[in-house]
Amino acid sequence: MSRPSSLTKTAIIVAVFAIAVGVRFFNYQNRIIFGPEQAMSLLISGQMLEKPSLLGQPYFRTTSRGHQLFTAPFFNYSLVPLMLLFKYRPMPITVFFTLLNLLTGLTLYHLTKKVFNFWTALFSSILFLFSSFMVGHSLFIWSLNWLPLLGLLVLFGLYRFYQTRSTQYSLYLGFLSGLILGLEYFYLLTLILVVGILLYYSKSKIKNAFYYLLGSIFAGMPMILFDLKHYFYHTRSVWQYFMDTLANPGQGHITYYHFLHFWPLLAILGGNILTRLWSKKRFLPVVTIIFLYMFLNLDLQPKLPAGVSLADWESAASVIADQRPENFNVASLLDFDTRAHQLRYFLKYYFHLEPEVYDNYNRISALYVLAPEEANLSPVNYELNSFYPYKVQKLSTNESGYSVYKLIK
pTM, whole model, 2 decimals? Predict the structure, then answer.
């Protein structure tokens, strides 16, 4: 194994992170994603400023009994200070999640270097930082974007517990696991694995199990308090959803983002393989693999929902705000989100105008719709059908080819 000087190591890792920063921030304004889920997250977090809540945001899924599932409030709590600090602007809030992803890569490098060596840490961080999934996730606000960092800390916590057998790591692991479970229920499978490893290497199984449970309770305290006040509504809803999934496995829709907490582990495994090749002086294959990996994962093209940028949404909201409307609602004909959550966010926090609630599309004076230019404005969905019949006025068309329409009686 070659042994570069400390200065060379520093130069290499600085160069890697500089490239990772450049890949993420290149054409940043036009690449960040502000879709309906991002707008909903900010709207719900904004509501917490008006009325604090023990629950986070709702899932799109409901149980067979019509009960809504919710995340733990940790993610929305983390958004509140960002919204206040950045005056509700989505772009700098998104920058926080970009930096969070880079911080995860830096933490991965630091911890892997402690456990293994410089080369394993370097290769692992490269595999993590230049994964197209990680680059993509660093460009939008989302609760699950916390999972890679939390998963990495769980992994290191297990390693430290194995070394020390200290109960403080049981408490630490319980707290982290509680946070992750509150964000992603599929983590339950990993949680069982973590508990199994913890107990297997424990000198005092009961004591460590107690501390792990205590840490989990601390992390899940808001939802526990909610359940105690509401006859275990959320626990019963999660159980019902679990039973529904057993009865109808297809509704679970398991996909990669349910396992984002494993991304650092996969990077470390890949880093170890590359280090073994490097130690056998197979420099050319390793360098080739890394460059091919970075090249194949490099995609700097915008991947915007329905092709609509953050600036497009803000511009459309500005057009509506210029009308100074009262008793109005908004809709969109761009994707599945026909309720136009992005418009609602900008209107409320930029222009201090609040559309009517989601189910009131018939008792209003005007309906503003963002749609492609020359779109068919016939009553094709619930929102337009509820307001029908109506007259259509085109207010503006932006450079991206999207128009704001005003529908009136």
Answer: 0.91
